[in-house]
Each structure stands twice: as C-alpha cells, then as structure tokens.
Amino acid sequence: MDWIRKTFSFIVVFTVFYTTCNALTPSTFLTNADQQRLKKVLSTAFPLTELTTAHYAALGYSLLNEKLPEDPCKFFDSKIDKKRLDTVFHASSGSKLVPSCKLTTTGLQQTLDAAISEDTSMQDIYYAVMSLHNLNLKIDNNKVSRIMTAILKKDDSVINLGYAFNIAATLQKDLKSYFERIEDVIVQADEVDGKYLQFEGGLGITATTIGGVYKLAEVAKTAPALTADQAIKFANYFLSRKFVQTVKGAAQLIQVLKIFATNKFHVPVAVTLASNSALSDENPNIQVRITNVLGESLGPLTVTADNAKRLEDGAVVLSKKAFQPVKGSNILYTFNFMDIKPLRGLYTVSINAVPSKADPKLIGNTGARISVKVMTEVAVENAEIGTAFVDQVSSAKSTRITFPKESVKFDVDIHQKLFLKFSLKDKNAKSPIIAHQAFVMFANQKTKQEVVFNAESDTSGVYRFDLDVKLKEKDFQFASGTYDVYIIVGDPVLKNPFMWKLGQAALTFSVAAATTVHENPYEPKPEIKHMFREKEKRPPSIVSNTFSVLCVAPLLLLFILWLKPFIYFWSICLFLAAFEHVFNSKISVRLGPFHLFIWSSIIEQISSRQIKQRHSITVFDICSS
Predict the structure, then answer these.
(1) Are the C-beta atoms of residues 21 and 369 closer than 8 Å to each other?
(2) Which residues in the chain come in under a pLDDT of 70?
(3) b (16+ CB within 10 A) / e for 111-148
C-alpha cells in the first residue's frame, strides 16, 4: 500500500501548491484572445433583429474600439414604442454610441415624465431617467429623488439599489444619501471559495450594481465602501465569467472590467506567468506579465521577487530578487531563477510590483504569487535483475544491467522467483531520488497482455521488486510465454520520465491458460432482457387450510371464553328489565283509582260553579281554590 501513501501525499502537496499559488490577486486578465472571442459573441447580433441585443452589441463594439458591421441608427429609431419604456431605453442608449445618430423624440418627454411615479418599479424609473439623459431631455431631479426614496422604503433589494446608484450618478443629486447605502449592498454579496464575490442573480445584477457603485463614487469624489480584498474578489468573479455566451452578458462584462481598469479608487493588478512554469538549465528564466484586468500596461514598475519557498519543506531559497524589464515590452519582467541552484521541486514565488511614484489605487500588486517547478534529469544506477529458487535464496543468480540498454533474458517457472532492484539518482543534485511513480511491467509478446506491479523503495532509496511466479500466476491468468520486462518511472519534476525495456522473461505457470476471446469493446452489447423469478412450487391447499385453522383456533377459544361472562351479564340485565316492567305495572294498578277520584272531583266543581269573571279559569286556579 506504499504507492497509495505516496499518491495521497503527492495530492496533498499539489493541493497546497495550487492554493498557495492562487492568492487573493487576479490570476488572469482579459487577453486579446478573450476579447476576440467576446467580439465573436457580439457579432451574433448582426444582422439586427432584436432591439436589446442591438443595444448591447453596439455597447460591446464601442468598448472594444471596434467598428460596427452595420449602421444601427435607423433600426433603433424604428423600434421605439412609446408604450414600452424598455424600447425607449435600449434605442436611446444604443443611438448614443453611434456617431451622428439622432432619434425622433416627439412626445417622448411627456411619456417619460409620466412614467416616473411611485406606482412604477425602480427598473422603469431607471429606464425613464436614462432615456431622458440619453436624449438630452429635461429631468425633474427633485421628483425623481423623492420617488426613488419612496420606492426604496418599500423595496431596497440589491438590484433596486444598483439602479438607484446609477440614477444618482447621472442626476448628481442627493449623492450622500445613496453613497451611504453602498456598504449595505456590499455586505449582501455571496463569497465563493474565499476568492470570488457576487450578488445573487449572477453577472447582470452584479455588473449593474458594482458599475453603479463606482460611477457614484466617481461623481462623489470619494472612495466607495469596498476594501481592497472585496474589490479584488469582485474582479476575480468577473474574470471567471469571461467565457459568457450571450450578447448582453459579453457587453456587461467588458463594461465592468473597463471600470475596474480605469476608475480612480481600485485598480486590480494582474500578475501572471508569461513563461513556461517548468524551469531547468535550458529554461532558467521566470518571466511575469503585470497588467490591469484588460491586459493594459500600468506604466513603469519596480518588480521584485520578495521570496521563493520550496513547498516540500517550506525552505526559503531567495529573497529580494529584482526582475528586469524585457526589452521592447512595457508589461513583461524577467529574472534567472536557476542562478541560485535550486533543488528539484515545486516553488511559490511572492512578487511585488510597485510604481516609481506611489499610486494608492493599485491593489493586489504586493504579495502576488506565482507557481513554478524546478525540473531535473534522473539516472538509473545499480540496476540488477536475477532469478532464485523460492526455497533456496543462496542459489540466486543475477545480472547487472546498464540503463538504457536491453541485455537480459530469463527462464522462470513456478519454483522460482524473479527479483529486481535499482536506484534513481538526481543528475543535477547528485543525490538519490524517490520518484512519484515507479512500476515494473510485464508485456506478453504474443497476446499483448500487460501486467503492472508497483516498485517500492526501502529506507535507503533502493527500489526492490520480487515476483514469486507461483503466487502471482493468477495475475497473469496462467498464460505462460515470453514477456517483455519494463521499468516505468515518472514524476512531475522529471525532464526525462522513461519506460525502460530490460529484456525478456520466459514465464512458465502450473496451469495452461484457457483460450481467452478478446471482445471488441466498441461492438454493441447484447440486449438486456429482464427475467422474472419463476414461481415456487406450493404445497396442497389442505396443508395451508389446516395451518390456517390451527393459527385461528387460539383466537376462537379466546372469543368463547370472553362470551361466557358476557352471557351471564346479559341474563342479569334481562332480569332487571323484567322486574322494572312488573314493578311499574303494579304501581299503575294501585294508583289508578286515586287518579279517577281526583279527576271526578275536579269535573264536578267545574260544572257547579258559575263563571262570573271574564278571564278564563285555569286548572291551576281550580286546584288552588
């Protein structure tokens, strides 16, 4: 399992190497190839058929300083619909980017003024105000400011504040009240991997909001409430979206990156490796490219390698090494890293790029990290291969072999084992090396079957491999025959990884290999047909019925035992009911004459008394008398 341990350790080292080399600085920029790709995306809007894409295509071409394939002025004018604010906004914004393009503005002043009310959304307010501004029409600043305040009281979402920032920057009114809201917006950004900041909703919302933040800050002449790290994280997010495939997204991306390259407060500095990261005696120089996010020069800089660390042990191998400007370029700087005679391995180089005159708007220009690796050549020494009987080690016979020659042939059967040992040496450092990958491979000359084993090194750095033919014959599928024997060595820092054929080994196994039909992996597989399990044979029904009766019998017995006390209780209830009827009958017989006597007396009194009063006589009155 040693190879698993080595592989895992390499993955850990490489992960640390990767993360440390991707510090919080822009690790890329919008290259010429990126700009040409985005231009190709923008060109899909032509011929013009849709107003929104036409607007953003014109914006993108303008930002790239490219000529439009066709004049969109008439198209913009024909697409204005006074009932739809978005058409007025896109047409007016697009026409402003086209020289000498004038739109028909009849009736637009009243339409746009009417659209600015508390009943409309912040987006419509933005469309109306920007349209008035684009068309050089009158804007009621007080009305707009009052309505914006009312809308934000109801909904101060990120996108609403983003629109508000853009409107305020255009009107240049009540700047302080909106400027103070920048911090409220920034804290709502989502952070990803500690390197990116974005708002929920993606590129469009993030670009609109951040663009509004910097426009408002420029009008207010005050740095926005963003830290340098936050600005770099937003820039990193936008650079990560440079493969956007929509016209609107491409234009918004170029626009916001243009803001990051030209604003007066935060200009992220991209420090990128311009040369091959693999260094050797033939390629000794580290060359870096230092630009803004659009790949443009930042002027003369003093570039210094603050330090360089070897990741394997954290050793600092240099400090304060000056880069030299590359002749004929104002963005490239270089120095010879191999002058310090570094050992093979992975390195991180921390770079500072400082202008001759201090410029506080530059961010990410100190402590920027790049990754390089120092390569070396490997030599094989003390290579030895031989055979021995499994139970008689003393009778081993071996042959020394010289890299890279092929010089041996052995016959090995199930009573023997094949052993191999070799050492790897760093040609530059003249020291032993433990490679990341070292294997011994056997390739059957007839069947082309390959069997690979891991070669492990001991504490002294010597690789040893033993093949017990009897124990390993299953790995060879008992296929006796002549095998070519190879040593395979590979490592990320080796210039000359190799696959060395040592010779041949005729292996004889105890069982003849069965004929194996090699299937073509590209042929269609047979159809998979689902097979239902056959029904199991059941016993006769009398068995199941008898079993059911036996199972139910205890329950029937329980019901019978419950029924006996119930019958006894029911008989008592019947007796009481009968007694009640007899008792009531006897009472009725005894009290009957008494009832007759009372009613006869009442009737006699009624007939003998003369009714002298006008109101009716009740039974109650008679009884009371």
Answers:
(1) yes
(2) 1-23, 392-395, 512-519, 565-625
(3) ebbebbeeebebbbbbbbbbbbbbbeeebeeeebbebb
Note the pLDDT of residue 619.
40
pLDDT at 9: 44
C-alpha to C-alpha distance for 540 and 58, rounded to whole angstroms? 87
Amino acid 615: pLDDT: 44
Contact 371, 346 (CB under 8 A): yes
Q: Name the nearest CA neighbour of 401 among 380, 430, 426.
A: 380
Structure tokens at 453: 């084993």
Phi, psi angle pair for 87, to nearest 5°: -70, -40
List, for residues 329-341, the tens digit of each pLDDT value: 999 999 999 999 9
DSSP state at residue 31: -
State the greatest distance between any 2 C-alpha atoms of the chain, in Å, as a whole number: 158
Q: What is the pLDDT of residue 1?
A: 41
Strands 368-374 and 278-279: parallel
Residues 76, 77, 79, 85, CA torsion sign: positive
For residue 621, the model assigns a pLDDT of 46
Distances (CA, A) of 583 to 576, 578, 580, 592, 603: 10, 9, 5, 14, 31
Instruction: Please state, as a whole number, how many other Cβ atoms lie within 10 Å of the Cβ of residue 423.
Output: 17
Q: What is the pLDDT of residue 460?
A: 86
- In sequence order, which ranges of 193-309 are alpha helices (DSSP H)? 203-220, 228-240, 247-262
Q: Which run of H or of E encompasses 169?
A: helix 158-171
- CA-based nearest residue to 483, from 521, 509, 455: 509
| Gap between the Cα atoms of 563 and 148, Å rounded | 85
Tell me what the pLDDT averaged over the chain comes to: 85
Taking the C-alpha atoms of residue 246 and residue 167, their distance in angstroms, rounded to an integer, is 25
The neighbouring-strand residues paired with 302 are 354
pLDDT of residue 257: 96
Q: How far apart are CA 74 and CA 206, in angstroms?
A: 32
| Model pTM above 0.85 | no
